[in-house]
Amino acid sequence: MKPKKILNLPLAILALFCCYTAMGQAKKTQPKQHYDVAAFLYPAYATGDPRLRPFWPLGIGEWETVTNMQERYPGHYWNRKPLWGTVNEADPAVMSMEINQAVKHGVNVFIFDWYWYDGRPFMETTLDNGFLKADNVDQMKFYLMWANHDVVNTWDTRLNKYNENNVIWAGKVSRAEFEKICKRNIEKYFKLPQYYKIDGKPVFMIYDLPQLIDGLGGVEQAVDALKWFKNETKKAGFPGLDLQLTMWSINVNYSGFDGSKTKNPENAFVKKLGFTSATHYQFAHFVNVNDDYMNIMEGVKKEWARIDTTFELTYYPHISVGWDNSPRTGSSAVVKNNTPANFEKALRAAKAYADAHPKQAPLITLNSWNEWTETSYLQPDNVYGYGYLEAVKRVFVDDK
What we know:
It contains 15 helices and 11 strands. By secondary structure, the chain is an alpha/beta fold. Strands 1, 2, 3, 4, 5, 6, 7, 8, 9, 10 and 11 form an 11-stranded mixed beta sheet that branches. It is globular. Residues 1-24 form the signal peptide. This is Glycoside hydrolase family 99-like domain-containing protein.
């Protein structure tokens, strides 16, 4: 009977009824705002990787630095313990658990710190044997940040106390080595369905621009090499490459670039090299971190605004959990009051930045998933439990 009543209504009223019905259905089915929350992942917490043994002889990676902190510095204030234990992140079962926890709390992308030294990859087992072999890998995306810095004694706590800073492995690579790296990453990683892409373009981040330029022979040579990299990515079937810059002073103030003919040399330099996007890796790169967290955030927001008006590339907002690398060195600048509650306020600021830039991908980067020895991690510990992960969940999962 009800359908007949509707059909007997005047056409105008029937049209109005249908309109409201459609609006109601649209409201019910309208997708929620989606954010790509990407946490940097430091792949040094692996068991069984022989190339890690020279730095951490116990065979558990940099967990060794975490667990023997009190032995090296008795009574030191830093006494963190992982609630999950000293897990082997190169184990697919462990990584499956971590993926579940990440996705549950709103982290849906891992940015793997990726290394290449002495003509071969370094610390790649966490990605290859752990993440990519996890049974739920399809739940997350990943991309690479090429951490092309020199390796000195920082990782080896037996030696770093002497402050020798001798170079063990150089981060510079030649053009031939660069091409080898790029071709390998295109074939091995970019083509995977889990690799994070923006508008179909694989995202690839470079950490240390001076090292890249010096290894390739200069600015012009680097421009040519990066252009070649983009073309190779297109040849592989992608619409292009989203070349992402780690935004910090050493990467935008390169002394070998002549910016005298432009009013904005930083932008001209980055544009010449072909970078299309940028984010930060750590607050410690651009603000005084020996301060209160909320004071730091004021400086962070000012830097976001400066980048927004200075550069033509796309900037994705970054939030660091904290900073304190005393597990490696015994002393450090220390972020104060970086509680989960204050971290949540920072996440909301990053979310507001993303919302204010609707034409770009809703990508927000976090430092980090597991930087224990720099005290900037989301993983649960004996101090705040799951507090940082719950903060991410409240902002990006619960409060949409």
